[in-house]
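Supplementary Methods S3. Input chains for the assembly prediction are listed below.
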Amino acid sequence: MARKPDLLPGTLDMLILRTLQRAPLHGYGIALQIKRLSDDVLTVEEGSLYPALQRLLLQGWVKAEWKMTETNRRARFYTLTAAGRKQLGVELTQFEQMIEAIGRVLRDVQEA
Amino acid sequence: MARKPDLLPGTLDMLILRTLQRAPLHGYGIALQIKRLSDDVLTVEEGSLYPALQRLLLQGWVKAEWKMTETNRRARFYTLTAAGRKQLGVELTQFEQMIEAIGRVLRDVQEA
DNA sequence: CTCTACCCATAGATAAACTATATATACGCT
DNA sequence: AGCGTATATATAGTTTATCTATGGGTAGAG
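Predicted structure tokens for the full assembly:
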């Protein structure tokens, strides 16, 4: 009845970019980190993650290169570009603005 | 390039239910109120609003009846049902949980 | 030599929201 | 009388994000 979404639609790109701002990372690692930092509230499914990364690549917000992980595995490491850093700023601002706006509607702030 | 969404996907039903919790209202009025309370940050397009109201009706979360407005117009007034009140509670809780989780990811709270 | 954790990727379905369009009426203005 | 604007509902068709399901493949532990 009441579905339990894995994440809030429209926030995935922002979460990925923010994760990459801390350090370059591969897809699997990004998903794990988001899951862990959110205390398992947010889960990034693989079918959402990899298309999202393709989107970000196409937009030029991240770049990718194949490397070996510490555990000796081939993995594609994504790095935030300058444009990506800028985009992250835009998305963070917009997101905060929306959250505040939603808060106003939910709380029904009275005005003169 | 950087799209400006009208609202955060996944929050519309909650916003409508919350608006109706204050008082029964017609579709047009709901959209106006959300827009105004949010200081024009949130805009509910008609193509989003009316399908959403149909959804809520089908789920039994609201009921509707035709009435006249104060300005002497035919309009369909929606009222929150008991089930709708309950659903609103669920959605509010989930939303807060998600927002907090996103906040943790964005702020990268350090733990032991 | 099998199992689990790690890692990438895409095709297809679903659902929410958007754009565009259609209809209609009350009221004020000229 | 005629026009424009704000009010009011509704749907068809498109787009886009996310999910489900599936397919690969490798390192290392047991």
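Chain B touches chain A through 36 residues (CB under 8 Å). Chain B is about 55% helix and 15% strand.
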